[in-house]
Amino acid sequence: MREIGPLATPIDRLDAQGYVNVDRRTLAEVEPWLRWSPALCAIVMAIGTVLGSQWVLWGLVPFAALGAVFPRHPFDLVYNHAVRRLTRTSELPRHGAPRRFACGVASVWLVATGAAFASGIEPLGYALGGMLVAVAALVSTTHFCIPSLIYGLLFGRPRCEATPVSPARPAT
């Protein structure tokens, strides 16, 4: 059965995260590796939640915050400077505002989850942590990013900045 809709393919879902200005061939090549940072975050979030450890969760906050401030997540830099040499793929591209927004949301969520555990409100910590892990796992397995979708609803979906070239008149 063929998927339909505006977020039907992994590339469509990456566009919703702000990768609209990335060359399509490059994006297709690195598409599986754009799961790298969300997957690593999901693993650490899961460990922190299962252990009920505010320290593990709060330890991830600076990484998420840096991902919100800069156009590359710190884990993307690990991929770009080490892992990609093994995979022989292109660098991961800079991410756009929707993905940075998602990192900002994750930062706040991590602080709140850690605070719940630190305050002794374990049921709230497990609920917040479980939802956080689920959202991160969804991004890392399907590229469907709920915070990026919210960003698109609030501020508009990212649009390609390049001027489209007519198929009838190739670029010179």
Walkthrough of the structure:
This protein has 172 residues and is mostly helical. It has one domain. The chain has eight helices and no strands. Helix 3 (36-51) runs antiparallel to helix 4 (54-69), helix 4 (54-69) runs antiparallel to helix 6 (97-118) and helix 6 crosses helix 8.
- DSSP, total strands: 0
Which bin fits the share of residues in helices?
55-70%
- Could you say which structural class the secondary elements and strand pairing correspond to? mainly alpha
Low-confidence stretches: 163-172
Please state the overall shape, judged from the principal axes of the Cα atoms: globular
Count up the helices. 8
User: How would a textbook summarize the main sheet?
Assistant: none
In terms of quaternary structure, the protein is single chain
How far apart, in Å, are the first and last alpha carbons?
40 Å
Put the structure in a nutshell.
This protein is mainly α. It has eight helices and no strands. The radius of gyration is 17 Å and the shape is globular.
